[in-house]
């Protein structure tokens, strides 16, 4: 029997996302049959002690202290980018031009201009069989994948309302330290790009319709924070005596949106003037919603029914079917049946999955696409569309919430 083909991975960055991705690369081939077997070949990071410790902890075979060296290595087939947004474009473009497949964390970049360059390079690379994907991992939550399937099956009819909230509270403490996520030059934006981007991607993906315009508000509640301090997970405390530096991103983002309509044959209408009007949406992203830890919520109301999801109860999906139960409320679908997306490869019915499984499924979908020589989804072009919405939100908020076309 011939040896299975390998996919030798080089990962850049090893913090929260690096840990999640390492786990996914390791686990995916153990639960799913893949056309290529991922190998954790090398991890790169600037701090020699830090990167060595991460390699040992997460199971990488070797280390580099410069991501460029990772790209030069001919024993690496794919570069996995888990660094802050300001580095994505340079690393992804260099990797694709060197013939390496790329998985890039979200949001794709820190500006539309960068995202456009990345997309152009990605499209040229795809013609040479070099593939790329952006890591909007929530697409791989079984309940959200089931929601998409149900919308595609027409179970909701035409979607009228999209209600998307992403609520966390880890920045509510004014003494939480000034990390890179609060520095616009590194993160691009705050709650908007960090968590709002997930909601935008999920809403566009599930409805199959793109956002065409927005009216937005951004707010920064805590304008200065302690520099340095202990960084534990996302939060940590800097201590009230530490010197302070400016927060240059939004703490909360709100916007209303219009989605593109559809023609009678289902084809997207370029604007909301299609034969079937597109949904209207309301989005909220904040890291100041005390008590909400990772409440990535999405509710869709259509002409036939509604769906509601909350990541804090991630193994279930609420469904209201107006034909079946006109007088009753929502029913809870426990999304752990073998017939549900991704779940059949895991535990018996009812045993449930966690946050990390989204990343494992992301690797599964990516490796299957690479094996088949097909464009993985979401492509850089899909992620560029999200980037355009982020930019439109910032433009509207900076212009007294005036309507801004995407
Ligand atoms: C931090 O707010 C964060 O880790 C995001 O960056 C992730 O994308 C999201 O999955 C959870 O929250």
Quick rundown:
The protein has helices spanning 16-31, 48-58, 67-72, 88-97, 112-127, 142-152, 184-187, 191-207, 355-372, 380-397; strands spanning 5-12, 36-44, 62-64, 78-81, 101-105, 132-135, 159-167, 211-219, 224-226, 244-246, 252-259, 280-286, 295-302, 305-310, 316-321, 331-334, 404-405. The protein is of the alpha/beta class and 406 residues long. The mean pLDDT is 94.
Summarize the structure in words.
With 406 residues, the protein is of the alpha/beta class. The chain has two domains: 5-138, Rossmann fold, CATH 3.40.50; 141-397, Dihydrodipicolinate Reductase, domain 2, CATH 3.30.360. It is 31% helix and 24% strand. The chain has a nine-stranded mixed β-sheet. It has a six-stranded parallel β-sheet with strand order 3-2-1-4-5-6, with helices on both faces. Helix 5 (112-127) packs antiparallel against helix 10. Alpha-L-sorbopyranose binds at residues 16, 168, 194-195, 234, 294. Alpha-L-sorbopyranose binds next to helix 8.
């Amino acid at each position: 029997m011939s040896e299975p083909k390998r996919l030798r991975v080089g990962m850049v960055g090893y913090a929260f996302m690096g840990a999640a991705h390492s786990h996914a690369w390791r686990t995916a081939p153990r639960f799913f049959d893949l056309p290529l077997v991922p190998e954790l070949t090398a991890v790169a990071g600037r701090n020699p002690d830090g990167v060595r410790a991460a390699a040992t902890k997460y199971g990488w075979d070797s280390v580099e202290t410069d991501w460029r060296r990772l790209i030069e290595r001919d024993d690496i087939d794919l570069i996995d980018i888990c660094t802050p947004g300001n580095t994505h474009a340079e690393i992804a473009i260099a990797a694709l031009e060197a013939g390496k497949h790329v998985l890039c964390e979200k949001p794709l970049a820190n500006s539309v201009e960068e995202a456009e360059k990345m997309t152009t390079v990605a499209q040229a690379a795809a013609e040479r069989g070099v593939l790329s994907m952006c890591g909007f991992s929530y697409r791989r939550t079984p309940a959200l994948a089931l929601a998409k399937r149900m919308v595609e099956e027409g179970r909701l009819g035409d979607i009228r309302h999209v209600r998307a909230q992403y609520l966390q509270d880890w920045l509510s403490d004014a003494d939480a330290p000034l990390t890179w996520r609060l520095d616009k030059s590194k993160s691009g934006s705050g709650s908007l790009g960090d968590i709002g981007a997930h909601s935008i991607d999920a809403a566009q993906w599930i409805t199959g319709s793109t956002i065409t315009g927005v009216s937005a508000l951004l707010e920064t509640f805590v304008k200065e924070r302690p520099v340095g301090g202990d960084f534990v997970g996302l939060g940590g405390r800097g201590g009230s005596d530490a010197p302070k530096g400016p927060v240059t991103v939004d703490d909360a983002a709100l916007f209303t949106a219009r989605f593109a309509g559809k023609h009678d044959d289902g084809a997207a209408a370029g604007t909301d003037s299609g034969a079937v009007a597109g949904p209207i949406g309301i989005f909220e992203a904040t890291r100041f919603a005390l008590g909400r830890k990772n409440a990535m919520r999405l509710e869709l109301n259509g002409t036939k029914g509604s769906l509601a999801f909350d990541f804090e109860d991630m193994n279930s999906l609420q469904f209201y079917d107006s034909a079946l139960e006109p007088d009753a409320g929502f029913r809870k679908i426990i999304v752990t049946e073998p017939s549900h997306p991704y779940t059949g490869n895991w535990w018996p019915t009812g045993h449930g999955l966690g946050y990390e499984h989204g990343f494992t499924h992301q690797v599964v979908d990516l490796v299957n696409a690479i094996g088949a020589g097909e464009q993985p989804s979401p492509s850089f072009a899909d992620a560029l569309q999200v980037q355009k919405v982020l930019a439109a939100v910032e433009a509207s908020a900076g212009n007294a919430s005036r309507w801004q076309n995407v």
